[in-house]
Structure formats: structure tokens, C-alpha cells
Amino acid sequence: MKRLILLLILSPTLLLSQIQKTKPIIIFDTVDRNQKSILFAKKETGDNISYVLSAENKTSKDFAKCKWLTSMSRNDTKSLINALETLEKDSSIESDIFNLTYNKNKIIVKIKQTKCTSKHKTYYFQKSCKRALSFILLPDMSSELIAKLKAEIDKSDFAINKH
Fold first, then answer.
1. Mind listing the domains of the chain with CATH numbers?
2. pTM of the model
3. Using CA atoms in the order 40, 43, 48, 50, what is the torsion angle rounded to 10 degrees?
4. What is the DSSP letter of 97?
5. Phi and psi for 72 in degrees, rounded to 5?
6. Alpha-carbon distance 124 to 121, whole Å?
7. What pLDDT is recorded for position 6?
């Protein structure tokens, strides 16, 4: 009987802790030849916070429509912010998660371990598309991305420290 009462009391708490909330942080279009729409969002599942990077390119006669979705931990996101802040002209930064290259007033961002999730076929022998996510940021876009991600992480850190 005690176990049943305890189970009834804990069930709503366990169910509520598994609810996922996703809040967009920043949405922008890149300046690539193959333009992409990029979305950074904050995903909360109970007490667990992660950051989601979603991208989709525009379909054209030269490019098939691809979609990418990847999840980054708070530390991975902080690492990306720090790398974008410290990246200097004509240099590059490489990590396990991303590669950044600043060349000709453009920042080329390559996110590792991402694959196209559209399930479309490439024309060579009908293989599934496995393109990794890469996009170009201009310096002002990079500054805005840094500011918005930093503000969201600071809010999360404040909320965690408050509890």
C-alpha cells in the first residue's frame, strides 16, 4: 500500500520532469552560395539543458534540399562562443565539435559529426546524402550570434546557481 501511494505521488513529478521545452535563440540566413537558414535553440528536459542547431538549405537547380539537426551541450556551446570570440583574421580554430576559419572577411563554420537528415539520394549510384553542415558567417552576424548565445547561457547559469 505504501509503495502504491509513493508511486502515485511520484508519477506526476516524473512525468513533468520529462517534458521538453524548446525555445528559439536566434534564426538567420547565411551568405553562402548555397544559402541556409540556421536556428539555434535552447532545449530543456527537466533539469537538463542542451542547445540545438538546426539548418536547412534552399533548394535550387544546383543544390538538393538538405536538413541538419544536432544537439550541443552547454560546454560545447560555450566552446563555440569562445572560439568565435577569439578567432582572428586569416586564422583557424579546430575542435572535436567544429572547425572555424576566418578568411577574406568571412567565417567558415563546419560542424563535425553532422549528416544530412533529408534521406534524399545523391545522383552518383543513388547513395544517401551524407553532407556535413557548413556555413559562412559575416563578422557582424558572428557578433550577434555570440551575444544572443552568451545571454541565453548566462540566464541558464543564473537559474542553475539560484537553485
1. 20-162 (3.30.2450)
2. 0.78
3. -20
4. S
5. -125, 140
6. 8
7. 38
